[in-house]
Amino acid sequence: MPVEEAAIRRISNNSVALDLYDWLAYRLHALAKSTPVPWAALKAQFGAGCTRMDNFRPTFLENLRLALAVYRHAKVEVIERGLLLHPSHPPVPLRPVSLVAGRPIGTKPARPAVLSDLERGGRQEGRHEGN
Question: Region (Disordered) spans which residues (predicted)?
Answer without folding.
Answer: 103-131
